Structures are given as C-alpha cells and as structure tokens.
C-alpha cells in the first residue's frame, strides 16, 4: 500500500516537473525567439523602455529605417558579421542609388576604417523625434567625416562615427550620454539637438569628462553649464540681441507681441533674451500672451487681441515640432503685423507652407550659403548630397571639424577639452572661423535674413541675407 502511494506521488511529481519545465521553455522561446527573429530578419524592433543599446550603431544596424534599401541592408548585415569588404561594396551601391543618405555614408566610412587605426566619436540625433532634423545634423557630420578621411584622417588615423537616437527626449538623452561616457573609445560627442536634451545630458558628460558639442541647442542656460560643454550655434542671447536691435532701431516697431512654446526651453530662453534687448532699446512687450503649445491656441482670436492691444509687430518663436502652429498664426495675420521670428523658422517648410504669409519676415540665423564668399562648404554640400543643405548641417559639420582639428593636437578626452578651450584654437568651418568662448559658446554673431519672393526657389520665396 505504501509502495503504491509512493509510486503515485513520484509519478505526480514527475508530471508536475515536466509541466513546469515545458512552461518555462515555452516562455523562454517566446522571448528569445522574437529577439532572434528580429536579428535574423534585420528588423529594428523598438528598444525596451529605459534601454538605449539598440539605438546606437556603428554600422551593424539601420537606425534611419526610412532610407532602407536592399543594398543598405546587405551592407549592414555584412558589417555586423565583420565582412567589411562586402559592407563597403554594398554601402557604395546603396549610395549610388540614394546619395542623400547620411547614415549610409557614415557607415561606409566606418567600414573602410575597420582594418586600420582610427579615432572614434559619436553623434546623437532625434531619429524618432524629428527625422528631418536628425538627417540634417547627420549630413553635416557625414560630410565632415568624409572630408577628413579622404584627406588622410587625423594624424594618419581615420575617423569613425557612432550614431545614436535620443528622439529629442531628455531621459533618452541622459541614457545615451551615460552609454557614451562608459565607452572609453569615444573621444567626443556631437549633440544633442534640442536644448532640453542637451541641458539634461550635460552634467553626465561633465562628470564623465567627455566633450559634447551641440550643433543646434541655443538656450541661454546651456552657456557655462560645464567645461566639457560647447556649441557651434550662437546662443539665444546672440540671436535675440541682433533681432531686438533691428526690430526697434531699423523696423521702428516698439509694441511687440511674442508667441512662444511653453514646452520648449529654447523658445522660452529666446523670449527672455529678446525682451531684454527690446526693453533696452525702448520697446515693450504686448500684453497678450501666446503659446503655440496651448490646447486653446486660436490664431484668429490671438491676432485680433494683438491688434486691439496696440501691437505693431509679432515674433513667432515655436519649437521645431510645432512650426505648423506658428505658420497658422502667420496666415491669420495676413500682413497686419510686421513679422519676426526665431531661428527655428529658418527652414524650407516655412517657405513651402508659409509662402506669401511669411513674406518680409525677418529672423536671425547662424548661417546662410551666400553669407561667406569663397567658402567651399555650400558647393561641396550640393555635390555630395545633390541639393542645398540648411544651417543644422552647417553647424553639425563645424562641430565635427572642431573635434577633428582638436584631436590633431590631443588624442585624449581631457586633452581635447583643453585644446578646445585654448584661446589659440581655431578651425575653418562652414559658418566661418570656429572658436569658443570660456563659456563654451561659439565666438561670433548671428546674421539676419528676410523672406522675399524668388524665382529661383521652388516655393516662390527664399531667405535673403541683408
């Protein structure tokens, strides 16, 4: 009897164990199988929350999936396997069909540098947050890398670039910064794009002793935030001062309505600096408040309120993700108030959508292709990409060139930081001479452009420096 009970218990125990093991293997296969299938198919599945490892690539994965092609996929797969000869050939084939793909050009240069000594830096862009902006920055980095490597590299070593996506999200930016700091082979970082993200990531770079050069963060409070933090775009102080001076002294407008973005540090910083210059020049801010991020944003009502409260000018200062809101306000304005803007509106979209609504609008910008006679960058960009580029491409190019020039003199993180801070450091870039102030800001001033009719532009309008 006891023997029979023991046998039954043993059988039940074995069955229970088998069921538990089977369930465990089934769950494991669901998780690992999905990951394995993703890898084999070449799909870039979204990273789990809090993870950034799948959002960084030297060439082993495609981050800009909008530019995927069979040749690019084959090149990336070969890169991941360490077959850099095939990777080079396939990436060249991909670029031959789509030369306006900066990710492929970066991966191509990376694959060509794999079998030689090289320097490694990184770039962080908002691929998931604003793809157009991400590609604009990547074009500048890719063009600089290509020129450096075609010229023999830096002291005989080629330049490699790791690409990361932060989606213009401060939390992701911090995670990317942490990953970059931990990778001791990375000597500097180009990024981040938005001021919100740069300000959030800056303390991590500062503590980790890793140079960060932002090509597009303009917020005033990034100035002096850390000795390892630089930027190649003028600060909002420089932009706002130039525009405020023009508004009061040249345009003769003194009651200025300002429409900003409450969710953007950049635009709030620009507003504060513009008000300082406006008041100092004898002007005043219109009493009507305007926020393009507000759920109650109503362009027609706002224009009526501006006019009834005595405004004679309107400054549009949206975040890059809400340019459409500012253009809706310009359309509602219909020429009633003289228009001014922050550098965010220095984009093809402004001309394409705004057209006559933004005619005669004046804004401060960091660069214009005709502003520096004899500078080869604009022509080289057209040859490389097949069309004109914008200011983010120019300032990203400058950030990469500044790092490359600095690495010629010092090949360590600390050494590079000291070189960039030296009063004797200069480099020739797309926007002119690159030199940094003790605050890490770019030395130099902004230029003003005005939207004017143009028969040379596909939109019928263009930005013209004056």
Sum up the structure in keywords.
14% strand; Rossmann fold; 47% helix; 466 residues; disordered N terminus; six-stranded mixed sheet
Record the SSE blueprint.
Blueprint: H1 2-41, E1 56-57, H2 70-81, H3 84-97, H4 102-112, E2 118-125, H5 131-150, E3 158-165, H6 170-182, E4 186-190, H7 195-208, E5 211-214, E6 229-231, H8 236-249, E7 255-259, H9 265-280, E8 284-285, H10 299-308, E9 313-316, H11 323-333, E10 338-341, H12 348-354, E11 362-365, H13 377-385, H14 391-409, H15 413-421, E12 427-429, E13 432-434, E14 447-453, E15 461-465
Parallel strand pairs: 2-3, 2-4, 4-5, 5-6, 7-8, 7-9, 9-10
Antiparallel strand pairs: 1-3, 11-14, 12-13, 14-15
Helix pairs in contact: 2-3, 3-4, 4-5, 5-14, 6-7, 8-9, 10-11, 11-12, 14-15
Give a written overview of the molecule.
47% of the residues lie in helices and 14% in strands. With 466 residues, it is of the alpha/beta class. The protein folds into two domains: 53-234 and 377-434, 3-Layer(aba) Sandwich (Rossmann fold), CATH 3.40.50; 237-365 and 447-465, Response regulator (Rossmann fold, 3-Layer(aba) Sandwich). It is globular. Belongs to the leucine-binding protein family.
């Amino acid at each position: 009897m006891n023997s029979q009970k023991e046998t039954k218990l043993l059988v039940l125990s074995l069955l229970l164990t088998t069921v538990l093991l089977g369930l465990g293997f089934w769950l494991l296969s669901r998780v690992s199988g999905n990951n394995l299938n993703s890898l084999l198919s070449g799909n870039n599945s979204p990273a789990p929350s809090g993870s950034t490892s799948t959002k960084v690539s030297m060439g082993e994965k495609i981050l800009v999936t909008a530019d995927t092609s069979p040749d690019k996929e084959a090149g990336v797969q070969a890169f991941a396997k360490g077959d850099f000869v095939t990777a080079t050939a396939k990436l060249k084939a991909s670029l031959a069909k789509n030369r306006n793909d900066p990710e492929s050009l970066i991966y191509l240069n990376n694959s060509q540098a794999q079998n030689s000594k090289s320097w490694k830096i990184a770039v962080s862009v908002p691929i998931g947050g604003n793809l157009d902006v991400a590609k604009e920055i990547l074009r500048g980095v890719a063009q600089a890398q290509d020129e450096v490597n075609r010229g023999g590299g830096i002291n005989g070593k080629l330049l490699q670039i790791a690409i990361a996506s932060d989606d213009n999200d401060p939390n992701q930016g911090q995670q990317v910064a942490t990953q970059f700091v931990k990778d001791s082979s990375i000597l500097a970082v180009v990024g981040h794009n938005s001021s919100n993200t740069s300000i959030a990531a800056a303390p991590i770079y500062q503590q980790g002793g890793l140079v960060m050069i932002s090509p597009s963060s303009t917020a005033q409070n990034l100035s002096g935030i850390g000795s390892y933090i630089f930027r190649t775009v003028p600060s909002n102080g420089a932009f706002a001062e130039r525009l405020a001076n023009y508004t009061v002294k040249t345009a003769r407008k003194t009651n200025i309505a300002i429409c900003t973005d409450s969710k953007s540090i950049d635009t709030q910083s620009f507003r504060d600096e513009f008000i300082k210059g406006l008041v100092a020049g004898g002007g005043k801010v219109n009493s009507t408040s305007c926020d393009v991020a507000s759920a109650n944003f109503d362009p027609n009502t706002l224009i009526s309120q501006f006019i009834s409260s005595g405004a004679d000018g309107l400054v549009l200062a949206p975040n890059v993700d809400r340019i459409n809101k500012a253009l809706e306000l310009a359309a509602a304005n219909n020429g009633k108030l003289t228009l001014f803007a922050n550098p965010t509106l220095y984009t093809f979209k402004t001309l394409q959508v705004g057209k006559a609504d933004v005619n005669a609008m004046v804004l401060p910008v960091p660069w214009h292709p005709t502003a520096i006679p004899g500078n080869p960058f604009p022509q080289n960009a057209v040859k490389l990409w097949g069309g004109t580029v914008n200011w983010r491409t120019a300032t990203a190019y400058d950030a990469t060139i500044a790092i490359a020039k600095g690495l010629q003199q010092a090949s360590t993180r600390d050494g590079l930081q000291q070189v960039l801070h030296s009063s004797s450091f200069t480099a020739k870039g797309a926007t002119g001479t690159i030199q940094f102030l003790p605050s890490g800001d770019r030395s130099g001033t902004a230029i003003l452009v005005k939207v004017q009719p143009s028969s040379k532009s596909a939109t019928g309008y263009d930005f013209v420096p004056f």
